[in-house]
Design brief:
By secondary structure, the chain is mostly helical. The protein has one domain. It is 76% helix and 1% strand. The chain is built from 18 helices and two strands. Strands 1-2 form a two-stranded antiparallel ribbon. The model has no long low-confidence stretch (mean pLDDT 88).
C-alpha cells in the first residue's frame, strides 16, 4: 500500500495531464462506439470513473494539504447526496432505469468532484497547470476535425437538415464548447508570433470553426476578437500610439471585408439560411415572436425549460429536494428524457435544491478565488475564457455537465487562479 501511495503521490500531476491530453482520443472512441456499435456506454466511461477514483484516493489517503478538511467535507457532502439520489431512484423509479440515471449522474457530478480534488492538489503545490497543454488539446481537436474533412471520413454535425462536419467526434455541442473555451488562450499566443504565423493560424481556425456549422464556436471567435480589439485600442489610446491605432483599424476593416466575402460560402451561413427558411422568416419582423426566437437562437431550449420546470413543480417534496432525475414522469404515458441543455437549469431540476447546493458551492468558491486573483493581476485570455464558460453553461449547455468539457473547465479555472505564464 505504501508503494501505491508513493507512486500515485509522485505521478498524480502526470495522470491528470495524460487524462486531459487523451480527451480528444476518448471522444473519438465514444463517437465510433455510438455510430457503429449503437451504444453510448463505452469503456471510456469506466476510465473516467477510474480517474475520479484515483483523485478520491489521493484526497482521502495521500493528501496533507492544510485545506484538506474543508475539501474532504465538501466532497463527502457530494457523495452523501449521490447516495440519497440513487436511493430515491431505486425506490421511486425502478432498477431497470438505474444504469441510465447513474450514467447521467456521473457525467454531471464529474465536474465538482474533479474541481475540488484537483484544486486540493494545486493548494498542496503538487499540480501546476501550464498553457502548453491547452494548446496541445486544442490542436488535437482541430486535427481530428481537419483530417476527416480532407479524407471525407468525418461524421455530420447534424443528423438531418443542416450541414457541417464534426470530424471523428459525436457531440457537436461538446466539441463546440471546447473549441470556444480554449480559443482565447491560443489567440493570445498567436498575437505574439510573426505576422505570417498569425495570418495562417487565424485562417486555419476560422476555416475549421465555420465548417462545423454550429453557432457557439463562431460566437467565441467574435467575442474574443472584439474584446481583444477594444482592450488594445484603449491601451494604445492611453499611450497615444496613433500609428498602431491606424493599423488596428485597417486590420479590422480588412477582417470585416474578408468575412463578408467568405462567410456566405460556409456551412455556418448555409445553416442560418436553412433555419430561416424552415421558420419561414423573410424579414426581421417575422422573427419577433418568443417561439421563433427560441427556435432560431436557443434551439428550443426555452420550450424544454418550461416543460421540465412544469414537471418539477408537480413533483413530490423529496423530488424537489433531491431532484426529478433524468427520466421525467416515469411510470406514466408521458415519459420525457429530453434535457434542457442549459447547465444551471439541468443541474437544478435534475438534482433539486440539495443537489444544486452541493454542486455549485465548489464552482462559486473557485470563481471567487479567481476574482480575487484578477484584482491583483488581470489577464485577458483567462478572463474571456471564464466569461465564455459562464455564458455557454447558461445558454448552450454541455460545459460543466459533460466530463470531456468540464475537465478543461477545471484546468482553465485553476490555471487562471494560479496566474498564467505563457511558455515560449
Amino acid at each position: 500500500m505504501k508503494k501505491i501511495n508513493t507512486w500515485i503521490g509522485t505521478h498524480i500531476e502526470s495522470i491528470i495531464i495524460c487524462f486531459l491530453l487523451l480527451g480528444p482520443i476518448f471522444d473519438c472512441i465514444t463517437a465510433f462506439s455510438i455510430h457503429f456499435l449503437k451504444s453510448s456506454f463505452t469503456a471510456i466511461m469506466v476510465v473516467k470513473v477510474f480517474f475520479l477514483g484515483i483523485l478520491f484516493y489521493d484526497l482521502f489517503f495521500i493528501s496533507k494539504c492544510r485545506y484538506r478538511r474543508k475539501i474532504v467535507l465538501e466532497v463527502s457532502c457530494i457523495l452523501l447526496y449521490i447516495v440519497f439520489f440513487c436511493t430515491q431512484i431505486i425506490l421511486q423509479k425502478d432498477v431497470s432505469v438505474f444504469l441510465y440515471e447513474c450514467q447521467n449522474l456521473i457525467r454531471t457530478f464529474f465536474f465538482p468532484i474533479a474541481l475540488l480534488c484537483i484544486y486540493n492538489l494545486y493548494l498542496e503545490d503538487r499540480f501546476r497547470p501550464k498553457t502548453k497543454y491547452l494548446y496541445m488539446v486544442l490542436f488535437f481537436y482541430l486535427l481530428f476535425i481537419f483530417l476527416p474533412m480532407i479524407t471525407h471520413t468525418g461524421f455530420n454535425s447534424y443528423a438531418h437538415s443542416k450541414v457541417g462536419t464534426i470530424g471523428w467526434f459525436y457531440s457537436c455541442n461538446e466539441v463546440g464548447g471546447i473549441l470556444s473555451i480554449l480559443f482565447p488562450f491560443l489567440f493570445h499566443k498567436l498575437l505574439q508570433q510573426k505576422k505570417w504565423v498569425v495570418i495562417f493560424g487565424m485562417c486555419f481556425i476560422f476555416f475549421i470553426y465555420f465548417t462545423i456549422g454550429t453557432k457557439v464556436p463562431i460566437l467565441s471567435l467574435f467575442i474574443t476578437c472584439i474584446l481583444y480589439g477594444i482592450y488594445y485600442f484603449v491601451k494604445l489610446v492611453q499611450s497615444k500610439k496613433w500609428k498602431p491605432i491606424a493599423c488596428l483599424f485597417v486590420t479590422g476593416i480588412i477582417g470585416v471585408f474578408l468575412l463578408i466575402v467568405f462567410i456566405p460560402k460556409t456551412s455556418f451561413y448555409k445553416n442560418i439560411q436553412i433555419h430561416l427558411d424552415f421558420l419561414e422568416i423573410r424579414s426581421i419582423s417575422d422573427l419577433m415572436t418568443i417561439q421563433k426566437i427560441d427556435h432560431f437562437i436557443f434551439s428550443e431550449r426555452i420550450r424544454f425549460l418550461g416543460k421540465t420546470a412544469n414537471h418539477y413543480h408537480k413533483a413530490s417534496w423529496n423530488q424537489k429536494l433531491l431532484g426529478i432525475g433524468y427520466i421525467e414522469n416515469y411510470g406514466t404515458d408521458d415519459v420525457y428524457i429530453k434535457q434542457i441543455e442549459m447547465d444551471y437549469y439541468d443541474v437544478f431540476f435534475r438534482h433539486g435544491i440539495v443537489g444544486s447546493i452541493v454542486y455549485f458551492i465548489p464552482f462559486i468558491w473557485l470563481l471567487v478565488e479567481y476574482v480575487k486573483k484578477m484584482k491583483i493581476h488581470f489577464e485577458l485570455s483567462s478572463t474571456i475564457s471564464v466569461l465564455l464558460i459562464l455564458l455557454l453553461s447558461l445558454f448552450s449547455g454541455h460545459i460543466v455537465t459533460a466530463p470531456s468539457v468540464s475537465i478543461i473547465v477545471v484546468y482553465v479555472l485553476i490555471l487562471s487562479i494560479g496566474g498564467i505564464v505563457y511558455e515560449s
